[in-house]
Amino acid sequence: MLGEFPIDTGSAMIEADPYGGNRYILKVNGVPSSHVDLDDPTYLDFEYMRWMEPIFTFGFPASDFDGRARKLRVLHLGGGGCSMARWVAASYENARQVVVELDAKLAELVRTSFDVPRAPLVRLRVGDAGQVLPTLSDDSRDVIIRDVFAGSTTPRELTTVDYARHAQRVLDGGGVYIMNCGDTADLAGAKAEAATLLEVFEHVAMIADPPMLKGRRYGNIVFLASDEPLALGAAFERNLRTAPLPAQLVSGASVQRFAAGASPIIPQA
């Protein structure tokens, strides 16, 4: 399983985690894309994924989904090593997930190497996330995760007001749109993404470590947006503060202040 593999968009490398265990790092064109623990799918190594975890556990308690009459429905825009899809499958009985991955050879490599559950539990759909989301039915997902990168940035067409409106349409009542945003210290991209979400959704929040929010380094910001109030109580914030890389929650008027001066992203003519 270890080694370098040709894929449609270049090359993928699977390396053993240097800290041991049955854990592996997937690199796509030299960039770390995913971390997978084959013995424990509930283990998440990447910090931004750990910040996503309480969005599920507090906003969508597993006790609310019996796996029969009510199944959690998750759409992943961007596949990578399917780390979050494996986590959801292990955490929610009989959840129904679709993972959209542009690279067919990468999707097959991940399927065969990382013990991804088979359809209908996890369906790997090869396609362009920018084209797939607009085709999906209204009110058909509880959670949408956008985690798509071309190099170090998310393709522009996945960041626009129009695309956010498609996510809003596809989400069922109480659904949450989760976005992984990578940005530089100037935070210009993150502020534009915040302005875009505020243009579309009633409730928007952000999660990141404090140095990132203060513009001190390159890193990740996790956005969450919904048309219904988000489950962001004291326990949620405590979970973030006690993470291995402590994170800060920004919500309400603080998101509006963060986005001040930025314009929503509109499609290019």
TrEMBL record:
Keyword Ribonucleoprotein carried by entry: no
Presence of keyword Membrane: no
Cited Pfam families: Spermine_synth
Designated name of the protein: Spermidine synthase
Source domain of life: Bacteria
Entry keywords, A to Z: Polyamine biosynthesis
InterPro entries: SAM-dependent_MTases_sf
Entries under Gene3D superfamilies matching the protein: Vaccinia Virus protein VP39
